[in-house]
Amino acid sequence: MRVALYLKHFPAVGRVNDGTSSAVSGLASGLAANGAEATVLCEGPARVSVADPRGYAVECFANPASGRRFAVAPALKEYVRGRLGGRRGLCLLNGIFHPSVYAMGNCLRRAGAPYVVAPHDPYDGAMFRSNPQRKWPYWCLFERRLLRRAAAIQVLDARHGDCLRRLGIDTRVLETDNGIAPQCAPEETRLRWRAAEEPARLVFLGRLDAYNKGLDILLDAYAGVRAPGGATLTLQGPDWGHRARLERRAKRAGLAGRVRVLAPDYERSPAAMLAAPDAFRLPSRSKGLSLPLL
Fold first, then answer.
1. For residue 282, what are the CA distances in angstroms to 87, 206, 276, 289?
2. Each residue of 248-287: b (16+ CB within 10 Å) or e?
3. Digit-coded pLDDT (tens) for 226-240
4. What's the pLDDT tens digit per position in 245-289?
5. pTM for the predicted model, two decimal places
6. Which pairing describes strands 115-118 and 232-236: parallel, antiparallel, or unpaired?
7. Which of 62, 139, 210, 218 is 20 to 30 A from 35, alpha carbon to alpha carbon?
């Protein structure tokens, strides 16, 4: 069985850091372990082919059109026709409201290759309340068509299919949970309770996306309570263009000294980072499946 997994920004070389790339890597390694010929397809500044030690291949195609654009690398189109076309393979398209995913779907359809869409987030009300003036036109013109033409839609929870039905999408839904590798979780014997008299340490770990992750809600709530014993709140993760906004919001709310906004730490595992604070905060407005919570 030949399965391709397309994620435009997947790192062909270097460490897999973000959540979507981790999910794609995990699924690809699981498919390979069960006998499938699994290949992750991505785009970047140069053509790269890598054999990952977890059993899958990575094929990166040179594409100068970076970011959210309706452009697929010419060499990737040739790969699709030669390797997946004529129903010789299946492709899993990873992403939601992403022009390159729509363009890749068109490329696969023209080549006669079936595809499955994996949005990684539910199409619920909260998803559409962020930038509705852009999302609703995009939905009507592109996203809806992509989903209707798919062989199936991979969701993280079967109930996410209800959101699709309400939007008029009757495509078959497949529930596939995300997960974590057992070796990523620290052994129970390494965990220690801290002394009760020490100030409590609260943390949010994930991308700094103010709206979808609900970090504006979290800061407002934190400002409305008295932090016992000098408790602190840390927001840590890759910046999606919102870090400065969050820092300004914390300052206006009088949270100086109580809130820290930090860059991601890729040297430590997420599980090890989450073992240090006292409480994890998850204020997301919309969530597919929370790997940090899991």
1. 42, 9, 16, 11
2. ebbeeeebeebbebeebeeeebbbebbeebeeebebbbbb
3. 655 678 899 998 887
4. 999 999 888 888 889 999 988 888 787 788 888 889 889 887 777
5. 0.85
6. unpaired
7. 62
